[in-house]
Amino acid sequence: MRRQTASRPDGSSSVSQPRARTVVVLAAGEGKRMKSALPKVLHPLLGRTLVGHVLAATGSLGADRTVVVVGHGADRVEAHLAGIAPAATPVLQAEQNGTGHAVRIALAAVPETAGSVVVINGDVPLLRSETVDQLVAAHEAAGAAATVLAAAVDNPAGLGRIVRDHAGRLERIVEERDATPEQRAIREINAGSYVFDAARLRAALGKLSTDNDQGEEYLTDVFGLLVDAGEPVGVHVADDATETLGCNDRYELAGLRRLLRDRVNERWMRSGVTILDPATTWIDVTVTVERDAVIDQNTQLLGTTTIGAEATVGPDTTLIDTAVGAGATVLRTHAVGAEIGPEASVGPYAYLRPDTRLARKAKVGTFVETKKATIGEGSKIPHLSYVGDATIGEQSNIGAATVFVNYDGVAKHHTTIGSHARTGADNMFVAPVEVGDGAYTAAGSVIIQDVPPGAMAVARGQQRNVDGWVLRKRAGTAAADAARRAGAAGAEAARRPGADDGGAVDRADGTVGPGADDGATE
Ligand code: UD1
Ligand code: CA
Known about the structure:
Elements lengths: L4 E3 L5 E3 L5 E7 L16 E2 L2 E2 H8 L7 E6 L3 H11 L4 E4 L6 H11 L6 E6 L7 H14 L3 E7 L8 E4 L5 E5 L6 H4 L3 E10 H8 L15 H8 L4 E5 L12 H21 L3 E2 L5 E3 L4 E2 L4 E2 L3 E4 L3 E2 L4 E2 L3 E4 L2 E2 L4 E2 L2 E4 L2 E2 L4 E2 L3 E3 L3 E3 L4 E4 L1 E8 L4 E4 L2 E7 L4 E2 L4 E3 L9 E3 L4 E2 L4 E3 L2 E3 L4 E2 L4 E2 L8 E2 L11 H5 L4 H8 L5 H5 L27
Parallel strand pairs: 3-6, 3-8, 6-7, 9-13, 14-17, 15-18, 16-19, 17-20, 18-21, 19-22, 20-23, 21-24, 22-25, 23-26, 24-27, 25-28, 26-29, 27-30, 28-30, 29-31, 30-32, 32-35, 33-36, 34-37, 35-38, 37-40, 39-41
Antiparallel strand pairs: 1-2, 4-5, 8-12, 9-12, 10-11
């Protein structure tokens, strides 16, 4: 409940009684021209559905009650509403007999409604909450029976026209298909948002006819009826006509998406974010970006994504429900449900899947995929790896081309790598397995047993060099010639007839140990 200040005829102002407010969103229509199995109001637009945007725009009214008229695809629309606006009451309009019919059904479901009734078409997603607030304030300050939001547009095709009398007062609203040629020339249109006094709306709705081109009950006819009854009605003209745009098909929806993209980008740029290429940067309305972040081209920031101060994101990056810490760098990356810590580094060409958590200064490098992986402060997975179901401590380095083998064909298992570990290139960690703090593993190892802290694990085939093999088996090739020039061992043997490849000969001690270089990569 809020109080509002109203002007009295004597010029003084007073705080009026708290005014009841009810919001009615019209969302029962099919939206035929969308040509979609999805009800029109559920089509997504930069982070919300169409109806989700409309509900968000009414949020600041602090309405006592919100009613959403559903019809086409009612089950899906109701399920969606339960998720995004559980306090809203869906009301079924089984047959869509027009916007007036829809409001009549909505009010029948809430018979005790008094005060202001705000009605908004469910398909005008660019409407700002400030504009709705101004519309309601203008209506309530004027004590009007009804107030319509209008806009002056270049192309009014398909929309209802605001017909004013010689004194500029609203006379009626006429649908284009019912309009005279003179009325069609009017460029002031009905934006599809209204405020009514509940009692006078209810009375007028009872008098609506279907005597029009579509044979429907038009909500817009309420205005003519109220004017004829001598009731005060008002027109509130929107400052920004683009807010009043609806969409009938996917081409128009794409137009709205561009407008909203520009609006969102402008807001972030004016609040201190650098967006290098606004035309290719798409930020959902639900995202937040802190100052001095830099967003490079071809970047999408979606869902509940947050970008910290001085982070660099992009180019060519899509972040969904992902948190990027201050000063982090995220380059050519696709991330879903990930947490990227402050000053961490991701990409180029990284894929972070849900429950990836990088601590401060951690690194996930090139062609690396992660999932359910917690990567401690300063730890690095620089190249060509899959890290799934893993915990990595601090300051560890995972060698290039490592796979955390988390799946046994039936269940997923966890791998734990300690802190300050150095694992060799081309390792397989066959989970469940644990590598202790400060441990090393040799390149090419398949680690199936736990590695104690400080140990070097070597788990790979022993190397044999079959001297002279190329000279014998690939004689006459460029490789054989090069080997001979290099003084290859076994050149003598190669000249002996019947020499074999020596394959049966194993080294006597049967052991192998890492040399000075264990193949770990930095
Ligand atoms: C309506 C207005 C028109 C205005 C335009 C602005 C009427 C008669 N005309 O026209 O003056 O310029 O919006 O966008 O109101 N709906 C229902 N039940 C129904 C019919 C519609 O819930 O029986 C819902 C639709 O889902 C939609 C909204 O009401 O969200 C508007 O309906 P739509 O058919 O799109 O009206 P327009 O022809 O655009
Ligand atoms: Ca419409």
